[in-house]
Amino acid sequence: MSANGNHTQGGNNGSNATGGTGGAIAVGIEDLSFATTEYVLPHTELAAYNGTEIGKYHLGIGQQSMSVPAADEDIVTMAAAAAAPIVARHGAGRIRTVILATESSIDQAKAAGVYAHSLLGLPAATRVVELKQACYGATAALQFAMGLVYRNPSEQVLVIASDVSKYDLDSPGEATQGAAAAAILVGANPSLLRIEPASGLFTADVMDFWRPNYRDTALVDGQESISAYLQAVEGSWKDYSEQGGRSLEDFAAFCYHQPFTKMAYKAHRHLLHYCGHPVENDEVARVLEPTTTYNSVVGNSYTASLYLGLAALLDSDADLTDRAIGLLSYGSGSVAEFFAATVVPGYRAHLRTKAHREAIDRRKPIDHATYRELHQRSFPTDGGDYPVPAQTSGPYRFSALSGHKRIYEPR
Length: 411
Ligand code: CAA
Hints:
Layout: E1 27-35, E2 39-42, H1 43-50, H2 54-61, E3 65-68, H3 75-90, E4 95-101, H4 112-120, E5 127-131, H5 137-151, E6 156-165, E7 178-188, E8 193-203, E9 209-210, E10 219-220, H6 222-242, E11 251-256, H7 261-274, H8 281-292, H9 295-298, H10 305-315, E12 324-331, E13 335-343, H11 353-361, E14 364-365, H12 368-376, E15 385-387, E16 396-402, E17 405-410
Bound molecules: acetoacetyl-coenzyme A.
């Protein structure tokens, strides 16, 4: 098998191109919903403060604005806000597992998903766990969820990706911050996407981006992180081809993890070049632009970023019925996975386009001084009672830190 893999099958182990398992059940995404923050900082504000030419942000990295959490928002409130519409539509009766993926964890022991489970009113008979491998975690969660559903197709798994991307003030990474949560309901005979069995995997021990336990901002070697990402694109595609994946021409669309939206362009150009395909900028833009509309105004949402890209693609005007989408998930450190999904006929009736646009449009613009103040907020660590100012107009809030315990409540 060559690195560019001219196979047309959708997977190995007797699977077929439509994502089934040799005539068995199809498993994939039944519903997809995202939530973001109360506030938004336009990049024009950041540029005016630090003297950067705005073209670097708008064109160079492809970012217009970044979501900024209110004082009483965090990964739990966003996770519950993203998942609540899914629970409202499908009920909780078949959800027996919740996997919350994050790299901006709030506790070293207790899973953030347990708080979300409580806010969502899910049944006690649920397994809840947190998963971490940088921005890749949600894709691991999705794959593990698929296994659970294959084992018992009557069960659904709620996968939630929730992150606040936070770098040091005045660092190069600052312009690529953001925050959001994506909730994904995984089940049999899905309404949106069938996930195909073939997957390309890649792991390399690199220090491109990391966050030691004693820090609340990430450390990053910017240029190293871009090279590590591109290496991972190559490695995961090579393995995908060797596992009997589709050929590049089979895909109607590609969706990449977007730490900043221009990274998707770098990644796709790299993949085309690696596979010996011509790299035409207009064509690359045509393929990728529909996947960047949410991320360009939300910023990096780490684990959720790929799935905001997917939501943007599905919510776009293009009719993707029965078409294949290639998805590339990258998590620094690093682990990557290239996998494929086919779009289910009738998918548009199940989309949440209006709610997604509202989640973005409802954010309140803040000035640079307010953003800086929010960025620098922290709690004393003495176990005292610290109520959090009521700022969010979202459905859930982080209302206090008391006796070292985080208190959440519906708003
Ligand atoms: N007009 C138009 N373009 C301009 C410009 C202007 N006035 N000024 C600069 N640019 C362009 C540059 O030419 C450059 O483009 P290319 O990448 O195509 O060469 C782009 O703007 C960025 O400029 P710099 O490289 O000089 O910017 P920087 O030194 O500030 O670093 C960064 C950019 C490395 C992305 C930095 O923001 C960073 O460290 N971000 C965090 C790390 C990150 O996101 N890494 C991505 C891979 S890791 C990953 O994916 C996991 C994850 O989620 C973190």
